[in-house]
């Protein structure tokens, strides 16, 4: 009962902070962000909706939707604006042309509204204040600086806590999946930020964490608050991999079989807690919307069923096409990298890998995610493929201890 009460308190505190913070940023008059929103529209029009930089695609499409929502907010009704999250549409009502809708909005030619209340749109907490001061390109530079800073801190902590090998494979994995470019799209920034900050917390506070389940519950909740279904599973997988590595390192049990079972048990518990945090906080937005007089639940359930289905424009797809479509976006370097590690791993004695089963469980989570969100993962493979980051990182972490053991035996 005490544990249940603790969870209820955590949920209520999170919801109060989330609603209050969104209301506060909704009080900023849109006239203060108009100039920088106009500059953002120019960037989107110049670059296109899905520009490519190096080996990854940016998402100006979604960023223009975010800018639209940020500017549409009416500071005279901050609470309802924070709940509705309206997207302003041109007369054509074309959701597939968000840049045109943004331009129409800025020119006072948008007369229609599309309700986007099924998401929290938590990114507004930093997007609206930043737009008061910076234009879109400056925001890109700022977010990129944050991304690099967090990456450096995490890499240094991994080196300090786990060793050089772990730090190296982490850096390689992040680069392969374009981590260094994630600050160039606001759409990608939130999950990267949550992934890294939660990892920093776990790496620093590992020995002092009394309830790791609550930690992952909060991580799941924050993911649903900030993210728009990019690759949310990485906010679980990345810190979970580090936590498992720290547990294995610090494990004092002499019974190795018991150690393995405990690791898997802990992993399942933190996964359940992350999932519950994600679902409870997300669905709470729907309930708050309904209480506020906004028809959110019906739309949310319809979209949820659509995104988890296997129908693409009237054509049914199978899960293998979904998985293959995402793997193709990992590009050849990633495929070669994971192939080499798997081949090397096969040549290592099985007994040296038994305690690393938890890593392999994490490795299949992106596949399970793709199976559960076939429509969404197929259509948006250009960014959902990043979930495979934790597949590569998990396999790498699973094999590294075996190499070290093999070296000792020699």
Question: What descriptors fit this protein?
Answer:
disordered C terminus, 410 residues, 3% strand, 2 domains, two-stranded antiparallel ribbon, 20 helices
Describe this structure as you would to a colleague.
This protein has 410 residues and is mostly helical. It folds into two domains: 23-133, no CATH class; 185-409, no CATH class. It contains 20 helices and six strands. Strand 1 (52-53) and strand 2 (56-57) form a beta hairpin. The longest helix is centred in the C-terminal third of the chain and has 36 residues, at 256-291. The radius of gyration is 22 Å and the shape is globular. The relative contact order is 0.10. The model is unreliable at 346-352 and 405-410 (pLDDT under 50).
Element order: H for helix, E for strand: HHEEHHEHEHHHHHHHHEEHHHHHHH
| Radius of gyration, whole Å | 22 Å
- How many extended strands? 6
Distance between the termini: 53 Å
- The total domain count is 2
Mean pLDDT: 87
**Biggest β-sheet: strands ordered side by side in the sheet:** 1-2
Write the layout of secondary structure elements.
Elements (H helix, E strand, L loop, with lengths): L1 H25 L7 H14 L4 E2 L2 E2 L2 H13 L5 H7 L2 E3 L8 H9 L5 E3 L9 H10 L2 H26 L2 H13 L9 H20 L6 H15 L7 H17 L5 H36 L5 H12 L2 E2 L2 E2 L2 H10 L2 H16 L10 H7 L1 H8 L1 H6 L1 H4 L4 H21 L1
Antiparallel strand pairs: 1-2, 3-4, 5-6
Helix pairs in contact: 1-4, 1-6, 1-10, 2-3, 2-5, 3-5, 7-8, 7-9, 8-20, 9-10, 9-11, 10-12, 11-12, 11-16, 11-20, 15-20, 16-20
């Amino acid at each position: 009962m005490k544990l249940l009460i603790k969870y209820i308190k955590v949920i209520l505190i999170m919801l109060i902070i989330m609603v209050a913070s969104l209301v506060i940023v909704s009080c900023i008059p849109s006239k203060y962000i108009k100039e920088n929103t106009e500059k953002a529209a120019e960037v989107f029009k110049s670059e296109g909706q899905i520009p490519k930089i190096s080996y990854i695609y940016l998402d100006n499409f979604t960023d223009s939707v975010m800018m639209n929502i940020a500017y549409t907010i009416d500071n005279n009704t901050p609470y309802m604006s924070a709940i509705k999250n309206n997207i302003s549409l041109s007369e054509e009502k074309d959701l597939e042309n968000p840049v045109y809708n943004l331009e129409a909005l800025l020119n006072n030619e948008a007369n229609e509204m599309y309700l986007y209340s099924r998401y929290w749109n938590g990114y507004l907490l930093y997007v609206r204040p930043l737009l008061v001061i910076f234009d879109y390109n400056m925001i890109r530079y700022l977010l990129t600086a944050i991304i690099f800073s967090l990456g450096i801190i995490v890499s240094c902590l991994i080196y300090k806590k786990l060793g050089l090998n772990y730090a190296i494979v982490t850096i390689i994995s992040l680069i392969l999946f374009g981590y260094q470019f994630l600050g160039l799209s606001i759409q990608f920034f939130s999950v990267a930020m949550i992934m890294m900050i939660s990892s920093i917390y776990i790496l620093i506070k590992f020995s002092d964490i009394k309830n790791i389940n609550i930690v992952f519950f909060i991580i799941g909740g924050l993911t649903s608050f900030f993210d728009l279904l990019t690759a949310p599973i990485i906010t679980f997988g990345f810190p979970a991999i580090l936590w498992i590595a720290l547990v294995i390192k610090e494990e004092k049990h002499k019974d190795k079989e018991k150690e393995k079972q405990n690791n898997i048990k802990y992993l399942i518990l933190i996964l359940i807690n992350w999932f519950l945090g994600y679902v409870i906080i997300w669905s709470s937005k729907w309930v708050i919307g309904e209480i506020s007089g906004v028809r959110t639940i019906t739309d949310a359930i319809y979209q949820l069923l659509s995104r988890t289905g296997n129908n693409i424009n009237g054509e049914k797809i199978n899960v293998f096409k979904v998985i293959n479509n995402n793997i193709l976006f990992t590009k050849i370097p990633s495929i070669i990298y994971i192939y080499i590690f798997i081949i090397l791993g096969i040549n290592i004695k099985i007994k040296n890998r038994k305690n690393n089963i938890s890593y392999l469980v994490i490795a299949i989570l992106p596949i399970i995610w793709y199976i559960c969100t076939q429509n969404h993962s197929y259509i948006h493979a250009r960014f959902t493929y990043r979930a495979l980051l934790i597949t590569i990182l998990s396999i790498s972490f699973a094999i590294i201890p075996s190499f070290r053991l093999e070296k000792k035996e020699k």
